[in-house]
């Protein structure tokens, strides 16, 4: 007999356990997400009735559509009236991610099979789910639901919807999208040598910076730089307009209007986290001669394989429809299910004062209160559209931004990533460096997506000051 070493047996046992765990995760995920598909489908009708009851009007959603799209002759634009869309009279389809209305699932596949069979039998079908052109088309094969959203849902006004919080803190910022974003400023207000723009990540706010870094900057930095931390459109204390699709362009335009123009910013550094990195890249490319340094924390960049549809690929990377790890389950629910995620916002965000109190009580204030408040400070409309139109929808744009950053923008590029980050993999930062070779990557061990900042406040503040002082004048 051939002797089998203990190490070989251990490796075999480990491989078996990993295989069993992988199979269990796959099987359980299939069951759970097929069940969630059905629940979301049922909630669609529940919210239709509830919206009509509370707001006396049927509201459009991205599950189905029943009206013809209004498009220009070249098929690349949706035309809407000035009344329907306050930010623009023309909405470029490339600004709207097809993941909003095309999210493949077993339910939609069965629906397509049923529709095909009904058409074969020459029976007019009632379409269930994301079918039709949007289900099989490209980014420019747009579901008419978007037109319906623009023509009907957008006209509901600026007041909070029945499923949103109406407390003073939330309603004070829910006004017209033409108003400025909320900005926290610190440092010399008159003639600062340079400005520093801080952009937070998804489901966060400007307090992510003001409560961690601002108190830890040196006296010299505080007297030299003007720090500008912004609450993005739809988050924190910034406006949460119902007449917005929260596209990349809208976010960038609002930053330009509320900060670069309002504060007369000429030369500035950018520090951005997660989602904010996408906006930072867009700003750097748009203002190449003004940006002095670019510091990206956990940039969510996923190179698109040849033949893949960018937004769909990024959605699968961000939200893989798996029950384990828990972060994958949470992101999948937020990204794939319009009505389940709205229910989560209804339960949590509408009752944020209770959950904030409960979190503080249970954890005995071990969790930073500003993180909890920032997590709840948004509406479903803002989170849902930002997630799809900025994170997923820019999958095909980021490579172009990085190429322009490499070729056209001369600013210093620094990337910092937590070694234990389970939200955005460390590989994303190395992907950026592969595209922009001059970028410097610093992987901080034993830190994750959040503790990369709040777990090393003083050290990170010193690092930023060094980056700014070494940047080209």
Automatic annotation (TrEMBL):
User: What InterPro entries does the record point to?
Assistant: AB_hydrolase_1, AB_hydrolase_fold
- Source organism's superkingdom? Eukaryota
Give start and end of each AB hydrolase-1 domain. Answer: 196-303
Q: What is this protein called?
A: Probable lysophospholipase BODYGUARD 1
Which species is listed as the source? Cucurbita maxima (Pumpkin)
Q: Which gene encodes it?
A: LOC111469048
């Amino acid at each position: 007999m051939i002797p089998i070493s203990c190490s070989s047996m251990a490796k075999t046992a480990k491989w078996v356990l990993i295989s069993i765990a992988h199979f269990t995760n796959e099987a359980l995920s299939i069951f759970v997400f097929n069940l969630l598909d059905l629940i979301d489908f049922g909630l669609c009708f529940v919210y239709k009735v509830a919206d009509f009851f509370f707001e006396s009007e049927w509201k459009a959603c991205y599950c189905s559509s029943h009206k013809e799209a209004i498009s220009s002759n070249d098929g690349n634009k949706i035309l809407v009236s000035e009344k329907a869309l306050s930010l623009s009279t023309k909405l470029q389809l490339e600004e709207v991610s097809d993941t909003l209305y095309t999210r493949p699932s077993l339910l939609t596949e069965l629906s397509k099979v049923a529709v095909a069979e009904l058409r074969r039998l020459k029976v007019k079908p009632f379409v269930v789910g994301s079918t039709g052109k949007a289900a099989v088309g490209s980014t420019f094969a747009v579901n008419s639901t978007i037109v319906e959203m623009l023509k009907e849902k957008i006209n509901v006004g600026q007041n909070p919807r029945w499923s949103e919080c109406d407390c003073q803190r939330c309603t004070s910022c829910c006004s017209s999208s033409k108003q400025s974003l909320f900005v926290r400023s610190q440092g010399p207000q008159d003639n600062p040598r340079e400005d520093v723009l801080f952009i937070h990540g998804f489901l966060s706010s400007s307090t992510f910076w003001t409560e961690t870094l601002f108190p830890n900057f040196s006296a010299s930095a505080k007297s030299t730089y003007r720090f500008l931390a912004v609450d993005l459109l739809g988050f924190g204390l910034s406006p949460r307009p119902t007449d917005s699709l929260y596209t990349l362009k809208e976010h960038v335009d609002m930053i330009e209007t509320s900060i670069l123009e309002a504060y007369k910013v000429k030369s500035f550094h950018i520090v951005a986290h997660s989602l904010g990195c996408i906006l930072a890249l867009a700003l750097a490319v748009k203002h190449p001669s003004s940006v002095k340094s670019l510091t990206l924390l956990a940039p969510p960049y996923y190179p698109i394989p040849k033949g893949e549809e960018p937004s769909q690929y990024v959605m699968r990377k961000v939200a893989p429809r798996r029950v384990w790890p828990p972060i994958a389950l949470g992101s999948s629910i937020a990204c794939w299910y319009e009505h389940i995620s709205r229910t989560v916002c209804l339960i949590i965000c509408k009752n944020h004062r209770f959950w904030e109190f409960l979190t503080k009580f249970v954890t005995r204030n071990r969790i930073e209160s500003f993180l909890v408040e920032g997590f709840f400070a948004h509406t479903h409309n803002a989170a849902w559209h930002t997630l799809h139109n900025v994170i997923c929808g820019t999958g095909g744009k980021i490579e172009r931004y990085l190429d322009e950053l490499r070729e056209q923008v001369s600013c210093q590029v620094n990337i910092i990533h937590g070694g234990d980050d389970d939200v955005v993999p460390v590989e994303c930062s190395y992907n950026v460096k592969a595209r922009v070779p001059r970028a410097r990557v610093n992987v901080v061990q034993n830190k994750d997506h959040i503790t990369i900042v709040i777990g090393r406040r003083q050290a990170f503040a010193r690092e930023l000051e060094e980056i700014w002082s070494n940047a080209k004048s």
